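User: Hi! I have a protein structure encoded as tokens and I'd like to know what sequence might fold into it. I'm fairly new to this, so please keep things simple.
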């Protein structure tokens, strides 16, 4: 066989080896890309979790002391919370923190200025946390494993979270005790300037008062059974509502039924020693529907039937109601911080 023929017969084998080498290189490149993408996703999730946690921590500070948002306190707490988290075993040390109003209805998109006049039903305070891994920040960009073969040494990452805090405008089933009280009762015993109960000078503790039918006391000193959205004025129905709460969602503006009558047998079913949430209306004097204007937490210290027929207790503050939607007025109940971004 001539040398020319031998050269031609060897040529396809050489081409095949080159093709296999290129294919193997491409395969390694794709494998490396998959490994690096998975690694970046893990790092990104850690960074997002850190931003979420810091934003939620900051938002819980808004209404800790007053009914007006504590902007600086929320931002400071969010900033501190960043350092409680890690990304790829590197402790996070910095981030961008800002605050402002957030419109729950999306009427105005994104975060708005904290100096604006808020809309009670929709504008709530929010804190935004942005954390990045880049040169000079939080350990720098994430170093990659196999992507450097393709000329990519590292990748920067960023995560953003925004959390809001607010007062209830609507509560889910099971949140309410079926006892309605009046807004003027809050005017008597609630300090709106400090977002806390008024204190009895004689004890230094929140004023104790009675929730009982309005004809047993003054119109601003009472409370009355409610059957919520259905007009039912019997002991078995109210007893079931004491045990299980409102069967339907109840929001501000909803008309609930006021059911006058002391119903002595029910006082034994009232959960003494517990904190409960009550619907607030304008009037409890007559058997009629009345619009809900807010929700207030109440600590029950006694429940007396017989000749007494009253529930005794006091208002409380910072009552967390997880079964609620934000955007209502301040009467002591708070919707736990929620992520909106």
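Assistant: Happy to help. Inverse folding works backwards from shape to sequence: for each of the 341 positions I chose a residue that suits the local structure. Here it is:
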């Amino acid at each position: 066989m001539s040398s020319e023929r031998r050269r031609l017969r060897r040529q396809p084998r050489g081409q095949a080896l080159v093709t296999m080498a290129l294919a193997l290189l491409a395969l390694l490149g794709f494998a490396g890309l998959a490994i690096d993408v998975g690694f970046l996703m893990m790092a990104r999730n850690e960074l997002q979790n850190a931003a979420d946690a810091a934003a939620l921590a900051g938002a819980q500070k808004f209404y800790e002391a007053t009914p007006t948002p504590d902007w600086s306190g929320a931002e400071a707490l969010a900033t501190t919370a960043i350092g409680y988290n890690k990304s790829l075993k590197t402790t996070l040390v910095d981030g961008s923190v800002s605050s402002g109003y957030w419109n729950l209805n999306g009427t105005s998109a994104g975060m708005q200025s904290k100096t604006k006049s808020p809309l009670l039903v929709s504008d709530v305070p929010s804190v935004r946390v942005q954390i990045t891994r880049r040169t000079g920040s939080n350990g720098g960009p994430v170093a990659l494993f196999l992507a450097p073969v393709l000329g990519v040494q590292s990748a920067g990452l960023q995560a953003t979270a925004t959390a809001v805090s607010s007062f209830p405008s609507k509560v889910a089933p099971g949140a309410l005790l079926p006892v309605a009280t009046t807004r003027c009762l809050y005017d008597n015993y609630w300090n709106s300037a400090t977002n806390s109960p008024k204190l009895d000078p004689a004890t230094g503790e929140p004023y104790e008062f009675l929730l009982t039918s309005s004809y047993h006391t003054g119109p601003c000193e009472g409370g009355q059974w409610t059957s919520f959205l259905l007009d039912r004025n019997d002991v078995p129905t109210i007893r079931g509502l004491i045990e299980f709460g409102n069967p339907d969602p109840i929001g501000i503006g909803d008309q609930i039924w006021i059911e006058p009558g002391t119903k002595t047998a029910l006082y034994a079913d009232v959960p003494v020693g517990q904190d409960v949430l009550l619907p607030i209306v304008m009037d409890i004097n007559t058997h009629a529907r009345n619009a809900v204007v807010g929700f207030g937490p109440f600590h029950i210290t006694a429940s007396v039937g017989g000749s007494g027929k009253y529930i005794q207790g006091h208002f409380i503050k910072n009552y967390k109601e997880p079964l609620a939607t934000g955007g209502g007025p301040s009467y002591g109940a708070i919707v736990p911080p929620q992520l909106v971004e």
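A useful reference point when you look it over: The chain has two domains: 3-166, 170-335. Feel free to ask if any position seems puzzling.
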